Amino acid sequence: MSLGGGGSSAPTETRVTQTDLPEYVQPYFERLLQRSEADSIQGYQPYGGQRLAYFSPDELTSQAMTRGYATSGTPQAYTDAQARFGSVAPMTSGYTAGSYNPNYQAGKFDAGYDARTRGSQYIAGQAGPIYDPLAYEQNLSRFMSPYQQNVIDVEKREARRQSDIMGKGIGDQATGQGGLGGYREGIVQAERERNLAQQMGDIQTRGSQAAFESAQAQLERERAAQLGAAQFGLTRFGAQEGAYQTQEQLSQASFNAGEQARQQAAQLGLSAQQQEEAARQAQEKFAQSGFQMQEAARQAQEKYGQSAYDMSNRYNMMAAQGLQNIGSAQQQDVLSRIGALSGIGGQDRALRQASMDMGYEDFMRQRDFSKRQLSDFSGMLRGVPVQPEQRISTYSQQPGLFQQAVGAGLAGLGLYKGGYG
Prior knowledge:
It contains nine helices and two strands, in the order βααααααααβα. The chain is mainly alpha-helical. The chain has a two-stranded antiparallel sheet. Helix 1 (about 25-40) runs antiparallel to helix 8 (about 370-380), helix 2 runs antiparallel to helix 7 and helix 3 runs antiparallel to helix 7. It is rod-shaped, with a radius of gyration of 60 Å. Residues about 1-10 have low confidence and may be disordered.
């Protein structure tokens, strides 16, 4: 009989390696993780302030003025200038040279001398329309700029705004000085209001005076041009009447010369035929001279007509250029004032935008303050030299009672089989 060995359970070993932070830094890392977790679960916090500054009142006013000026149509000065330019046209001469046909033919014998009478052919002309100057009050407003009062109101509003800013500064300074500052504030504020009233009056006076002087200057130019045209018309009329009178005098002299020749011929014993022929020849001679004088008068009249037309054209050109210059000056003045007002409004809006940007930046800094603190704290901890500690533990597990009983039974069974085998 042989005995066989039964199986038994050997002890089990477990090896555990544990890495820990040093005790002097572990609390800091734990607090950092706790604060980071608390900060990460915070909800979104929107910014409640305004981010974009809207147009300032001065900018809106300048935009409205620009829109109104742009859509108001062509300025009246430009329209008047265009009408003046349109009236300038080349002159068509109305002069046609006349032709002279001699009326002298030798007559038949007619003895005797008969005195003749001649009626005057001259009829005095009538001068054209007299000079009627433009009415002062009715035409002065026609040359006034329609935007002058708007510009004056803008300057007055800006003066009021600057005075309000100064008044706020005086009030703030008086608040800082206490009870004694209230009495001084009243005096300074009264002086500021007086200066503001004087400044507003000066702005209104300067603006109204500038508009009045510009309109008055254009009215005087219109009057001077009308007066020059009237004087030229009188000069032309006088020259024409003088030519007509000279022609009549020559005709009368021709007639008188013919009569004198007839009388002299009769007195000298000439025949009636000779008297008539001499008179007719003299009359023909004077008629030719009269025709020549008449042609000269017509030519002079045509010359004066051309000069008058040229002067009228020059007057219209000068008036059109003056109106065009006035329109350009008024337009440039309005646009420059609108630009100045827009610049002031832009400065105001830029200041408000800078204030809003500063508010938003302050909000961002306040909102992210804890994150920056955690980041700084984390960076500081990363810079601390830390050597982690490692601990290795080995655990042995012994067999339990059940495992020992099972082992003993198996051993007995092995012995039994060995004995009877």
